[in-house]
């Protein structure tokens, strides 16, 4: 089907359900874990997409490998633990932990093999661009001279070669640790022994060799180590060698009654480093006794070993995306400063007072969020700042501004989430820094993660206090904000200010808000509110009124929400979903979901914003639509085990921007779209017959080229394109 049908055309003909399919059984859901692997296949497919610049294709390959590593260290590790504990409780789709593990491992092995094949293909294309990835056999005499000096100066001091015998026990290999296992022979008498060469993670994986002109030449680190092995084991020769790489269980457990949550997390981080091995990747053809030794010492079973003929640790190929070949990367893009902010000479408070403003990152710069807080820190009329922090950068300008405000005597309260996976250590450092500056740091709840993105600035204006609030769908992280698509809503509306205060009071004092005006929050009201809104749309359909739902999110897996969507679709509501990653819905099946369609967008930017629009009896797009933005995906963890927000948009311009620009462009997108069918297959968008040669519409390109509606100023009085109808 043409994906422009998602905006204009009729829903595709539904397919017959599989033989014996029971729409009331768990088979109505796709499996969460397998759906995630399917998403990572889509990421890997971009590495073979000829429309993507060559080094960006290499980056997609790296991302797919890093994604799979994290998936194993967290999700697969959890399933493995359940299986080993004898747990046979089925998931939402009816599969036991063991059944899921079996299917995941089969699919992941295929994925890793295709990663190797993709790398070989990209390597050939790189050579055509004079970028070479060499092995030892291709080194020249000049290369050898350079490498000896490089090795002694930059690598040798970091290495600790180890013989393996009773006096030299097998060392601890950390998560993502990379090693060479060797059989070495003493030249003088032929004595053989096993040896191990752990490779410190602080050393670059690829060594750049001298090259003429614009050429780039690289040697993998393991090739360098084997080339220089005699410097590590003088008097020995290598008989056999193979590389291996370790992934460990990286999930964390924290004592529920911990007196000092920060200290407990510091201890838990150390435990994570020593988690059990969940996957061991080895180069194919390893010497059997050496392979057995490694498996025994690491405590892994045969099904946890993956043998690959090629490059281990494929995530490291991101090092090959070098600045010297910008011509092989995406064209440069500079995020816009909203015209209205420019009209007010950078004064964020003045721009917000004029009218609510929605920024669409990364197309509008995240620097405006930083500017908002820096201006608050330096404004003598600002009395207080309250801020949630889930993920942020190491040298965070957000934290800088909060510290500056606290040191200036303002009341600053930071709600730091210590349980932000893989950012726990960074968040501990930031919380210590905030405390030293005089800010009040709150760590939220032990049982719930605080995932909401809220900033509130209280400012004295005349004889009253005005609260300026920022509501986001993404993290306060300036680096990821360059590549994640997210929304930032700025308002000084009194209801939003009161709602923010109530949420902050809930976080700091466990005081559940009795009323919320423009807001629903999880784990209290967000899920019931969402299901209620879906049900209202179904009532419009049953009454014969136009009924539509457009929604965009990263993942949807919550069974209750999916069932509500199924029921609404069966009542006649037309439901169009843009789900980047995990999707538990079976769309387009007769009798179950013929009025539901699902697409996934994977491209230059990572789709991260969460939006839902209800036609409310008027259809979409419509000025009467009810429009919401959220920090929450539609998953059990977000709806029941996190503090999240669902913010209703009431400003007409912001509503139009979300419905007629952002959602319409996502639904219209063809260039980066995959369409999901009822059997779980994702297929790339295709042109309608007779349209060959037409440029595929890209929502990312559209957003890069067109300013947002709510950020217009005096310089932007010209019309801003909307996509309520076919784009020009």
Please describe what this structure looks like.
By secondary structure, this protein is of the alpha/beta class. The protein folds into three domains: 3-30 and 521-709, Endonuclease, Chain A (2-Layer Sandwich), CATH 3.30.870; 99-264 and 277-328, 2-Layer Sandwich (polyphosphate kinase like); 339-514, Endonuclease, Chain A, CATH 3.30.870. The protein is built from 19 helices and 27 strands. Strands 14, 18, 19, 20, 21, 23, 24, 25, 26 and 27 form a ten-stranded mixed sheet that branches. Helix 16 (559-571) links the parallel strand 19 (548-553) and strand 20. The model is unreliable at 253-259 (pLDDT under 50).
Strand content: 15-25%
Q: What is the count of structural domains? A: 3
Gross morphology is globular
Average per-residue pLDDT, rounded, comes to 90
Give a summary of the structure in a few sentences:
The chain is of the alpha/beta class and 728 residues long.
What descriptive keywords fit this protein?
728 residues; Endonuclease, Chain A; alpha/beta; 8-stranded mixed β-sheet; 10-stranded mixed β-sheet; polyphosphate kinase like
């Amino acid at each position: 089907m043409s994906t422009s049908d998602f905006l204009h055309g009729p829903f595709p003909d539904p397919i017959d359900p599989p033989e014996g399919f029971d729409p009331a059984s768990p088979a109505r859901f796709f499996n969460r874990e397998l759906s995630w692997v399917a998403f990572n296949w889509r990421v890997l497919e971009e590495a073979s997409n000829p429309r993507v610049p060559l080094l960006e294709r290499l980056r997609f390959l790296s991302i797919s490998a890093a994604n799979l590593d994290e998936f194993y260290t967290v999700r697969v590790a959890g399933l493995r633990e359940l299986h080993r504990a004898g747990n046979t409780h089925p998931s939402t789709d009816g599969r036991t932990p063991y059944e899921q593990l079996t299917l995941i491992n089969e699919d992941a092995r295929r994925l890793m093999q295709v990663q190797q094949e993709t790398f070989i293909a990209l390597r050939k294309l790189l050579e055509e661009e004079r970028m070479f990835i060499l092995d030892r056999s291709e080194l020249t005499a000049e290369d050898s001279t350079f490498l000896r000096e490089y090795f002694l100066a930059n690598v040798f001091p970091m290495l600790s070669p180890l013989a393996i015998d009773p006096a030299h026990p097998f060392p601890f290999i950390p998560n993502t640790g990379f090693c060479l296992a060797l059989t070495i022979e003493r030249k003088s008498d032929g004595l053989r022994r096993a040896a191990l060469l752990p490779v410190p993670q602080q050393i670059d994986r690829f060594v750049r060799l001298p090259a003429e002109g614009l050429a780039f030449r690289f040697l993998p680190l393991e090739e360098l180590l084997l080339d220089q092995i005699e410097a590590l084991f003088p008097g020995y020769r290598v008989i056999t060698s193979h590389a291996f790489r370790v992934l460990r269980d990286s999930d964390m457990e924290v004592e529920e009654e911990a007196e000092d949550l920060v200290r407990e997390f510091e201890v838990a981080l150390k435990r994570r480093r020593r988690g059990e091995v969940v996957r061991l990747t080895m180069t194919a053809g390893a010497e059997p006794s050496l392979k057995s030794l490694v498996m025994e010492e690491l405590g892994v079973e045969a099904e946890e070993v993956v043998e690959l003929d090629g490059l281990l640790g494929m995530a490291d190929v991101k090092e090959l995306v070098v600045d010297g070949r910008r011509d092989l990367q995406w064209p440069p893009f500079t995020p816009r400063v909203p015209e209205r902010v420019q009209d007010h000479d950078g004064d964020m408070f003045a721009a917000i007072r004029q009218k609510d403003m929605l920024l669409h990152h990364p197309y509008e710069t995240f620097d405006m969020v930083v500017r908002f807080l820096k201006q608050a820190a330096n404004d003598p009329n600002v009395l207080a700042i309250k801020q949630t922090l889930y993920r942020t950068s190491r040298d965070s300008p957000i934290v800088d501004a909060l510290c500056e405000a606290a040191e200036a005597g303002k009341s600053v309260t930071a709600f730091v989430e210590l349980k932000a996976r893989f950012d726990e250590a960074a968040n501990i450092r930031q919380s210590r820094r905030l405390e030293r500056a005089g800010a009040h740091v709150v760590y939220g709840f032990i049982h719930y993660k605080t995932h909401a993105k809220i900033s509130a600035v209280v400012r004295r204006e005349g004889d009253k206090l005005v609260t300026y609030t920022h509501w986001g769908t993404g993290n306060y992280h300036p680096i990821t904000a360059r590549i994640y698509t997210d929304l930032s809503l700025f308002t000084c509306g009194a209801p939003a200010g009161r709602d923010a205060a109530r949420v902050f009071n809930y976080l700091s004092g466990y005081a559940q808000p009795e009323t919320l005006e423009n807001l629903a929050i999880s784990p209290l009201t967000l899920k019931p509110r969402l299901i209620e809104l879906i049900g209202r749309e179904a009532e419009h359909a049953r009454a014969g009124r136009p009924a539509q739902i457009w929604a965009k999110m990263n993942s949807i897996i919550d069974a209750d929400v999916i069932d509500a969507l199924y029921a609404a679709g069966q009542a006649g509501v037309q439901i169009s979903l843009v789900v980047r990653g995990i999707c538990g819905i079976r769309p387009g099946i007769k009798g179950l979901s013929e009025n539901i369609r699902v697409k996934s967008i994977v491209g230059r930017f990572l789709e991260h914003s969460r939006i839902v629009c209800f036609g409310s009896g008027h259809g979409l797009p419509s000025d009467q639509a009810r429009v919401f933005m959220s920090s929450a995906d539609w998953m059990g963890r977000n709806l029941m085990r996190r503090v999240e927000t669902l913010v209703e948009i009431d400003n007409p311009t912001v509503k139009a921007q979300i419905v007629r620009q952002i959602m319409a462009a996502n639904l219209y997108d063809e260039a980066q779209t995959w369409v999901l069918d009822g059997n779980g297959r994702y297929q790339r968008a295709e042109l309608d017959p007779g349209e060959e040669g037409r440029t595929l519409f890209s929502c990312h390109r559209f957003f890069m080229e067109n300013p947002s509606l709510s950020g217009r100023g005096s310089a932007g009085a010209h019309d801003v394109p909307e996509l309520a109808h076919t784009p020009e």
